[in-house]
Amino acid sequence: MFLQARDNQTRQIQETVSNVEKHFGELCQIYAGYVRKTARLRDKADLLVREVNAYADTETPNLKHGLKAFADELAKLQDYRHAEVERLEAKVVEPLKSYGAIVKVKREDLKVTLNARNRESKQMTQLEKTRQRNPSDRQIISQV
């Protein structure tokens, strides 16, 4: 009964570690891709702002004023996009990345625990066999 409960608990821990490893890895990749695409969009918009400003310099004063105002507003939007990229990197992507190392450590801990449990199980089996063969020989039983 005790061994079955322990096996169920071990299996559940293994499934949890595997589940976290799979899904957090996917989440990290998707968020990192999202951040990269958002950063590329920000960079393209910065190029657009420069080009609008360059075009405004060649136009009449009224059109120049309107284009410069448009370029300034677009630049402000890109400042917000830049802040979004930095926030996503710091608050989402980096913590998700750290789970890779945590999962690796937990998997190693689980492996060590399973090895110890298997050794203990083998010793218990050997002890039971020895008891069945020599039930009255306490010296051999204590050595095992």
From TrEMBL:
<dbReference type="GO" id="GO:0005634">
    <property type="term" value="C:nucleus"/>
</dbReference>
<feature type="region of interest" description="Disordered">
    <location>
        <begin position="121"/>
        <end position="144"/>
    </location>
</feature>
<keyword id="KW-0969">Cilium</keyword>
<keyword id="KW-0809">Transit peptide</keyword>
<keyword id="KW-0539">Nucleus</keyword>
<keyword id="KW-0221">Differentiation</keyword>
<dbReference type="GO" id="GO:0060271">
    <property type="term" value="P:cilium assembly"/>
</dbReference>
<keyword id="KW-0496">Mitochondrion</keyword>
<dbReference type="GO" id="GO:0035869">
    <property type="term" value="C:ciliary transition zone"/>
</dbReference>
<dbReference type="InterPro" id="IPR027267">
    <property type="entry name" value="AH/BAR_dom_sf"/>
</dbReference>
<dbReference type="GO" id="GO:0036064">
    <property type="term" value="C:ciliary basal body"/>
</dbReference>
<keyword id="KW-0999">Mitochondrion inner membrane</keyword>
<dbReference type="GO" id="GO:0007283">
    <property type="term" value="P:spermatogenesis"/>
</dbReference>
<dbReference type="GO" id="GO:0030154">
    <property type="term" value="P:cell differentiation"/>
</dbReference>
<keyword id="KW-0966">Cell projection</keyword>
<dbReference type="Pfam" id="PF06730">
    <property type="entry name" value="FAM92"/>
</dbReference>
<keyword id="KW-0744">Spermatogenesis</keyword>
<dbReference type="InterPro" id="IPR009602">
    <property type="entry name" value="CBAR/FAM92"/>
</dbReference>
<feature type="compositionally biased region" description="Basic and acidic residues">
    <location>
        <begin position="121"/>
        <end position="136"/>
    </location>
</feature>
<dbReference type="GO" id="GO:0005743">
    <property type="term" value="C:mitochondrial inner membrane"/>
</dbReference>
<keyword id="KW-0472">Membrane</keyword>
<protein>
    <recommendedName>
        <fullName>Protein FAM92A1</fullName>
    </recommendedName>
</protein>
<keyword id="KW-0282">Flagellum</keyword>
<dbReference type="GO" id="GO:0031514">
    <property type="term" value="C:motile cilium"/>
</dbReference>
<dbReference type="GO" id="GO:0005814">
    <property type="term" value="C:centriole"/>
</dbReference>
